């Protein structure tokens, strides 16, 4: 397979320093403020050089579910990240053929970047417990530091136990991120019900959803449906494969 740098950040030129590349993977169907806050918290807390957002091409764990096109999910991700100088939206996974697996992505990235670029794979803390069962989990442990984002009050016991019992040596950092009560499925439900997405996802993403009538959106007004002024609620996750 030909390896192209494409729209990935250009890191690693200075051989006298170590670079830190954050990798924010997910379906992003749609991307929302929880994803963005999570990436920004990781950028600050871990001293990352850049965070690259990679919408999954054909997510392994969603083969039996309906997922918006890669072009739509990439476009929304590009719109959501365009005003942040240390965020980059990449087509790296969208343009790859076949089912998307994290281990494959990391191995391809390792071929692109020199060894003075460390990878920090950002996912949800609830997904950390599942990482040990991912395909080629040993490669994931070998190639990337894991960043598990948690919402306030989240019990880490399950994730920590799974990592401790794993035969692989995972390096995990946990970060508390208040905005993780938002989820993509919650946003899709609000769109179907004609409810507003304001303050849940960037306005350009909301506009794209309604312009392209994703998730059952109406072509006319948005945010004016029944229950527009309902209380925000719902739980969800931000993870590397969601």
The rough form would be described as globular
Describe the strand arrangement of the main beta sheet, using strand numbers.
3-2-1-4-5-6
* Span of the ends, CA to CA: 26 Å
Compressed to H and E, one letter per element, the order equals EHEHEHEHHEHEHH
Question: Strand tally, please?
Answer: 6
Total helical segments = 8
Q: Tell me what portion of residues adopts beta-strand conformation.
A: 15-25%
- What is the level-2 CATH architecture name of the domain at 19-182? 3-Layer(aba) Sandwich
CATH H level, superfamily name of the domain at 19-182: HUPs
Descriptive keywords:
single chain; 242 residues; alpha/beta; Rossmann fold; six-stranded parallel β-sheet; 8 helices; 32% helix; globular; disordered C terminus
Structure notes:
Residues 224-242 have low confidence and may be disordered. Helices cover 32% and strands 15% of the residues. α2 packs antiparallel against α8 (203-211), α3 packs parallel to α5 (137-143) and α4 (125-131) packs parallel to α6. It has a domain at 19-182: Rossmann fold (3-Layer(aba) Sandwich). β1 (19-26), α1 (33-46) and β2 form a beta-alpha-beta unit. It has a 6-stranded parallel beta sheet with strand order 3-2-1-4-5-6. With 242 residues, the protein is of the alpha/beta class.
Any chance you could write out the topology, listing elements then pairs?
Elements: E1 19-26, H1 33-46, E2 50-55, H2 70-81, E3 87-89, H3 102-112, E4 117-124, H4 125-131, H5 137-143, E5 144-150, H6 157-165, E6 172-176, H7 184-192, H8 203-211
Parallel strand pairs: 1-2, 1-4, 2-3, 4-5, 5-6
Helix pairs in contact: 2-8, 3-5, 4-6
């Amino acid at each position: 397979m030909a390896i192209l740098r494409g729209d990935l950040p250009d890191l690693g030129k200075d051989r006298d320093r170590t670079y830190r590349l954050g990798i924010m993977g997910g379906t992003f169907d749609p991307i929302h403020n929880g994803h963005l806050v999570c990436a920004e918290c990781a950028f600050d807390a871990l001293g990352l050089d850049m965070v690259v957002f990679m919408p999954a091409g054909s997510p392994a764990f969603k083969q039996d579910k309906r997922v918006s096109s890669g072009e739509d999910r990439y476009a929304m991700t590009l719109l959501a990240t365009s005003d942040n100088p240390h965020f980059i939206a990449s087509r790296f996974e969208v343009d790859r053929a076949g089912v998307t697996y994290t281990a494959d992505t990391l191995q391809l990235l390792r071929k692109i970047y020199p060894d003075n670029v460390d990878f920090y794979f950002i996912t949800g803390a609830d997904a950390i417990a599942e990482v040990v069962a991912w395909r080629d989990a040993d490669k994931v442990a070998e190639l990337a530091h894991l960043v598990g984002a948690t919402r306030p009050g989240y019990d880490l016991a399950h994730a920590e136990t799974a990592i401790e019992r794993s035969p692989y040596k995972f390096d995990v950092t946990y970060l508390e991120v208040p905005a993780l009560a938002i989820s993509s499925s919650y946003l899709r439900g609000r769109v179907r019900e004609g409810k507003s997405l304001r303050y849940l996802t960037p306005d350009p993403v909301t506009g794209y959803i309604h312009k392209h009538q994703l998730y059952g959106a109406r072509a006319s007004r948005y945010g004016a449906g029944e229950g527009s002024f309902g209380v925000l609620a719902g739980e969800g996750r931000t993870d590397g494969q969601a």
